């Protein structure tokens, strides 16, 4: 059974692994599943054949025989559910790991992603500095809660799960700011995620795509 | 087995059913599970016993014997996984329904929720009008994709699922704006969700909490 995902032909993050195909690649590497990648340009993402897979015109998508998925959270969950190692088998522990998946995407990522967007789209606006302060305060509120809960544990709830995979992916968007440095336990947590062999393989794979794209127009 | 959720003692939406306990109540009504509600004040949400359940100090939480969950998406998924009727049993259809759950929370809700927040927190800021336009354009981009995909179908993918439950919940935040009226099929879709007996029971239950709170200081 072949798995095919889509990714940016030329990622706007210049190979830093912040595009959402990275979390899917990482999950596939954690469970040891090979996959094909179909690269799409920004123009191709607006065309009918991509919109048939992804109604919002985004990457990544995931194809496996007749099944097509288009939300990175759902794709990571689908991979985690079908292979051991990304979700605990014990009933309550599994529910808690899934809870952390939703926490990463619905509570922690939104203010962090808003900051990324503002830095791209609002940098030249007269209010930019003031708005950045509001956004960073929102981010810190989330990180306060997360840092307190993590404490000195290695992962959020026992062994590494898909919840950690998504939380680390989300926190990585703060690299380049100094916010994460104010939370040494979260910085170390992100570092542990990035040190996993599966993470490194996924990172190199997406980086190779960007490197190859530099030779093209 | 007793299920206990938390909800605002006095919801800032004044009983309109926009707080995130509504989607959990709705899911519990769809599967016919009774539940207890512990009401919390904004002050109580910052206290250690609430933070022990909800690291980000939010509502709703969900308790079932020793299990505690604190993300509404994960709670709805937990309920859906343990009862028939909110997720299809066929493997691919189930994965697609879960995909719509993530689409509702991660792709459609963020710009809609940002608009709600901006209207409360940024109304007096110099950037408010311009930011509102940007947010509404982002919302319309999402609704364009959703409306095209839904077409004239009753629900997003076959029978009603937890994906529809969350998508309708998210779109309801647009009531009071004229945005949704530009998408007649989405407006009718929201209306079908709100017409479900389980929705109505959940709505009345959360509304009763707000009505009761009006007599208090």
UniProtKB/TrEMBL annotation, chains A, B:
Source organism superkingdom: Bacteria
Residue intervals of the GST N-terminal domain: 8-87
CDD domains, alphabetized: GST_C_8, GST_N_GTT1_like
Start and end residues of each GST C-terminal domain: 90-212
Pfam families: GST_N (PF02798)
UniProt protein name: Glutathione S-transferase family protein
Organism: Neorhizobium turbinariae
């Amino acid at each position: 059974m072949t798995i095919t995902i889509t990714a940016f032909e030329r990622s706007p993050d210049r190979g830093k692994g912040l595009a959402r195909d990275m979390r899917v690649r990482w999950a596939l590497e954690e469970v040891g599943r090979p996959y094909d990648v179909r690269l799409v340009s920004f123009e191709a993402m607006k065309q009918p054949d991509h919109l048939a897979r992804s109604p919002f015109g985004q990457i990544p998508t995931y194809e496996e025989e007749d099944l097509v998925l288009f939300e990175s959270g759902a794709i990571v969950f689908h991979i985690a559910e079908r292979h051991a190692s990304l979700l605990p088998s014990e009933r309550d522990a599994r529910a808690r790991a899934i809870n952390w998946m939703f926490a990463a995407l619905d509570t922690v990522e939104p203010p962090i992603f808003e900051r990324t967007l503002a830095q791209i789209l609002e940098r030249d606006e007269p209010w930019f500095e003031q708005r950045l302060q509001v956004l960073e305060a929102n981010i810190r509120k989330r990180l306060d809660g997360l840092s307190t809960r993590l404490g000195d544990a290695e992962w959020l709830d026992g062994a590494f799960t898909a919840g950690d995979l998504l939380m680390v992916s989300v926190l990585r968007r703060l690299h380049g700011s100094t916010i994460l440095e104010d939370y040494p336990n979260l910085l170390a947590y992100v570092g542990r995620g990035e040190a996993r062999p599966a993470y490194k393989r996924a990172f190199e794979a997406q980086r190779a795509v960007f490197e190859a794209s530099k030779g093209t127009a």
